[in-house]
């Protein structure tokens, strides 16, 4: 990894001042943020948060954006009540913190959320997107969960699942050219493994000049040079979901 003393650069970027248009609900043992589109639909997207948890305004902003684009969108608390990472925390403790929050051990929670979406929201076609920690979780789910139709992994930490590439569903991978935690060599290696082992449609896209978190941790109004790439990343994400859901 590029910088062991700073194992995740998720603090780069801006914390939105955003309240959210959806509502918080209790889904069995999990709390979740849900936003629904004006018109009824049978399409839904599960949003998997980054290390800052399900209440981060940035993630709720993207969840609401999905609803605006016609999807039932839900962002569950995949830390299940455990504290999200805080910027005031000591990065030296990050790896110990991470050990109790495994992106590959969310299957029980995903099953609960899928049941809720099908039975309470009438969803029949369900996809998933995720950021950083959540992006790695998307890759995990695309490797094993038969009930999801498609996924978008946004700067998912490759090293969590780098040895597995036999995806079950079409998956779109978004990476930043200047990501301190995901070197381009890792992205190249991932592409090679996908080419060798993957039988479904996938795409890997690198956005020039961008840093980790650019799709949801940067604001177009104060980063004008990044605006085209932020908008492109969001548009690509929506277009992929539209294609496969």
From TrEMBL:
Domain Dienelactone hydrolase: 30-245
Taxonomic superkingdom: Eukaryota
Major subcellular location class: cytoplasm
InterPro entries for the chain: AB_hydrolase_fold, CMBL, Dienelactn_hydro
Keywords, alphabetical: Cytoplasm
Short name of any one Pfam family annotated for the protein: DLH
Signal peptide span: none
Subcellular localization: Cytoplasm, Cytosol
MF (Gene Ontology): hydrolase activity
GO cellular component, one term: cytosol
SUPFAM superfamilies, per database record: alpha/beta-Hydrolases (SSF53474)
Entry similarity comment: Belongs to the dienelactone hydrolase family.
Identification of the protein by name: Carboxymethylenebutenolidase homolog
